[in-house]
Amino acid sequence: MSKKDVLEDCVRDSLARYFEDLGDAEPHDMWEMVMRCVERPVLEVAMERSGGNQSRASEMLGITRNTLRKKLLAHNIRA
């Protein structure tokens, strides 16, 4: 099993628990919820692993440095 598969399984398990917790209620804005829950820790880990270097973090993430800066601001993550 690849590391990607392990990560996908973790997401599936988390979503299964989310639906269990919802019970009969209908989910709303799932996309936004998942993206916000995932994006922040990904940004934080990239910044930690790059030693706070935005150029290295953006390369690691496959996004431009400008995009990284916008996302850090949006999530109120200090660079």
TrEMBL record:
Keywords: DNA-binding. The keyword Lipid biosynthesis does not apply. GO terms for biological process: regulation of DNA-templated transcription. One of its GO terms (molecular function) is sequence-specific DNA binding. Residues 37-72 form the DNA binding HTH domain. Signal peptide: none annotated. The keyword DNA-binding applies. Belongs to the transcriptional regulatory Fis family. This is Putative Fis-like DNA-binding protein. It comes from Orrella dioscoreae.
